[in-house]
Amino acid sequence: MIDTIAALSTAQGPGAIGILRVSGSLVLPISLAVLEKNGTPLTESFIQNQKRSAIFCDFVEKGKPLDQIVFLYFPAPNSYTGEDLAEFHLHGNPILLKRALHVLLEKGARPADKGEFTKRAYLNGKINLSGAEAISRLIEARSKYELELAQKNVFGEITKLSSKIRSDLISLKAECEAEIDFSTEDLTFESLEERKNRMVALKNLCSKLIKDSERAESFILQSTVVLYGEPNTGKSSLMNVLIGKDRSIISDVPGTTRDYIAEELSLDGIPIRLVDTAGIRDTNDTIERMGIERSKREADSANVKLFLIDTSLPFEKKTFIEKHKDRLLGSLIVANKIDTKHPSWQMESVQDFKEEFQLTISEISCKTKQGIPELLELLKSKLTSKDDTEDLVLLEDRQRYHIQKIESCLSEAIQLMENGAPAEIYIQEINVALQEIGQVNGTVENEEILGRIFSKFCVGK
Ligand SMILES: Nc1nc2c(ncn2[C@@H]2O[C@H](COP(=O)(O)OP(=O)(O)OP(=O)(O)O)[C@@H](O)[C@H]2O)c(=O)[nH]1
Ligand SMILES: [Mg+2]
C-alpha cells in the first residue's frame, strides 16, 4: 500500500485550466468518489477501459457538481511516478482548485511534499537522478539560455556523458584486473603508456566538463554588461535609465564618472550586472587614469559591451574607425542623443562599416527614451545568444562534486603510474571513481540526500 499524494501541478493563480494530480494506491477509489457523468457515478470498469484517455465528466462534492472536467487515469506502472496516477483538469480558478483539492484530501489523499511526484518517479525507476534534476531546472529556468541547457539535460546529455566516463573506467579497470590476475609478461612499455594516455584523456574530459559547467553557470547566474565609450557620451545617463533610478552622477563635464559603478538588475528574468565606466580618454589626472584602467578591465571581461557614441557631435567615420578599431569588432554600438543628432550622423552612411565590423547599432536618446525598448530587446538577445556557449553542459552542484572526485582519482592514478606503482595500487583509485560515477545518474538511496535534492522542486512536480 503506497500512500496517496495530491497537489496542484499547474501554476498558482487563475488560468484556463488547472491540473490536480494524485498518485498512489488510492487513486482509483478517490476518483470514483468524486466523479460523475450525467448525474451517475463513474464505475471502475468504465475508468479502466478508458485508461490514458480523456474522460469528460463532472467533479462532485457530496453529490454537488463543482466543475466540468477532463479526467485522465494512468494505471501503474505506465505513469509519471510509476504508480497509479490521475490528473483532474479543472477550470483554472484558484478558489475552485483549492476546494477540489480539499475534496481529494478528504477522500484519502495527503498533500504532496515538494518534488514528491518526481521523487517517486526516481524511486520507481522511471527516471534517473540527473533526469529529475534536469526537470527541476527546466521548470525553474529564468532565461532562454538556461532553458536550453536544461533541455539538453532532460534529453540525457549528462546521462550520455556519464555513461561514456563509466564505460572508459570499466575498461581501464578490466585491463588492470587482467594484469593483476594473469601474467604481465606481455605487457610492453607501449601498452602501459597507452593506458596512461587514456587515463589522461578521461581526466581531461572531466576537467573540461567542470570548467564548461562553471562557465555555463556564470552565464546563468549573472552576465556582465558594460557601458563604455568616450567621456560625455551618456553612459551614466543610460545606466540610470536602465536601472530606473539616479545611481550615477550625470553632468556635461567630461570625466564625471571616475571609477566604474556596478548595479545588479534583472532583465526579463536574466540576472545582469550593469557596469557604468569612466569615459575613456587621454588624461594627465592620475586618479582618472586609474579609473580608466579599471574600467577597461571591466569591459574586457564583460559578456556584452555597449559602446556609446554621442551623435550630437560631428561624426567622421574614418577618424572614428581609426580611433576605435581595436574595440569595434562585434560590438553593440549605442548611438545616443538622437534627439539632438548632428546632421553628419546618418544610419545609412555607416551601413558599410556596420557590416565590416559586424556591428549592431542601436539609436537611442536617454533624454526622450526613444529606442530604449529596442535596445533592451537587442541586449536580451545578445545575452541569450548561443555563440560560443553552444557546447556547454550544465552540471548541478551535486553532479559536479562527483565529477571532481573522479578527476582527482584519475590524477592520483596517473601520478602513481608515473612513479612506477603496480596496477594493484592504482586500481583502487579507479574503483573509487566508478563508485562516484554511479552517483551521478543515481544509485543514491540515502533518504536525507534525496530529501535535499527533491526539496528544491516545487509542490505538484
Ligand atoms: N540631449 C541629450 N543629452 C543627453 C542624452 N544623454 C545624456 N545627455 C547629456 O550628456 C551629458 C553627459 O552625460 P553623462 O551620462 O554624464 O555621460 P557619461 O558618458 O557618463 O560621461 P563621463 O562620466 O564623463 O564619461 C549630460 O549633460 C547629459 O544630460 C540624450 O539622450 N540627449
Ligand atoms: Mg559617467
Topology at a glance:
Elements: E1 5-8, E2 15-23, H1 27-34, E3 35-37, E4 40-41, H2 44-49, E5 55-61, E6 64-74, E7 85-92, H3 94-106, E8 110-111, H4 116-123, H5 129-140, H6 144-154, H7 157-181, H8 189-221, E9 223-229, H9 235-243, E10 261-267, E11 270-276, H10 286-300, E12 304-310, H11 317-328, E13 332-336, H12 351-356, E14 360-363, H13 372-383, H14 397-418, H15 423-441, H16 447-454
Parallel strand pairs: 1-8, 9-11, 9-12, 12-13, 13-14
Antiparallel strand pairs: 1-2, 2-7, 3-4, 3-5, 5-6, 6-7, 10-11
The site of magnesium ion (MG) has 6 residues, from helix 9.
Number of helices: 16
Strand content: 15-25%
The name of the CATH architecture of the largest domain is 3-Layer(aba) Sandwich
Which strand order do you get reading across the main beta sheet? 4-3-5-6-7-2-1-8
Name the shape in a single word: flat
User: Could you list the spans in which at least 5 consecutive residues all have pLDDT below 50?
Assistant: none
Mean pLDDT: 89
Order of helices and strands: EEHEEHEEEHEHHHHHEHEEHEHEHEHHHH
Radius of gyration, CA atoms, in whole angstroms: 30 Å
Query: Quick one: CATH class of the largest domain?
Result: Alpha Beta
CATH superfamily of the largest domain: P-loop containing nucleotide triphosphate hydrolases
